[in-house]
Amino acid sequence: GTKTESTWALRTSAGIILINTNFDWVTPELLGELKTFNLDPANIKYAVIVRSHSDQSWGINPLKKMVPSVRVIMSQGDWDFLANDNSPARIKPVKDMVAKDGQKLTLGDTTVTIYITPGSSAENLSLIFPVKDGGQRHMAGMIGGTSMNAIQGGLQVFPDAPTMIKTYIASAKRFKEIQDKAGVDTIISV
Asked: HSE of 135 in the Cβ direction (CA atoms, 13 Å)?
């Protein structure tokens, strides 16, 4: 990632699941940096975009240009948001896969479970997936956002601040319960 925004590459036995793409002007460089970790960007099979914010989703088109076969997964609400917000036309991605709450994305030996947890966007995604530290396996949880926006990209995300706050709190509580059930012992920040 950059100093302020993260993009994650989850290496599996059958390729890479990219989590977020970052800004459009950063994505090509980030993909090139994968080689530093002996990862080939051509092996990216999926990109899971946790929310439609510019720092997570604007790199979809540069990613698709570099790896045309990659499948992009985002919530219906965030696909709709990107189609209608005031972001530049060059940023507007073609809709691909729509994430469902509780959906499992399996690539090789790795399964990512996707949950819709409104808060940072109307339908941002939170993820649970296995990771390794050396030879030790852990279960990671990644909440789809820790900020709230009533208005984003010129569009109303929530009808008012109280609704936005209540929605975010309910999502955070729900995801905490999901993490506890899944045995999450590692928190990864978006």
From this structure: 0
- Which residue type does 166 have? K
pLDDT at 176: 97
Segment (H or E) for 46: strand 44-48
Does the predicted model carry a pTM greater than 0.90? yes
Report pLDDT for 8.
92
Block residue for tokens 């499992």: 104
Give me the sheet containing 8-12, strands edge to edge. Answer: 8-12, 15-19, 44-48, 71-75, 97-99
Q: How far apart are CA 75 and CA 124, in angstroms?
A: 7
The pLDDT score that the predictor gives to residue 119 is 85
Query: Residue 21: what are its φ and ψ, rounded to 5°?
Result: -120, -15
Say if CB 120 and CB 53 are below 8 A apart: yes
Pick the closest to residue 167 from 107, 97, 118 (CA basis). Answer: 118
Token pair of 146, please? 């820790």
Rounded Cα–Cα distance for residues 31 and 16 (Å): 11
- Block mean pLDDT (10 aa), the chain, length 190: 81 97 91 94 97 88 97 96 91 96 98 94 93 94 84 83 92 96 93
* Angle, alpha carbons 64-113-38 (nearest 5°): 50
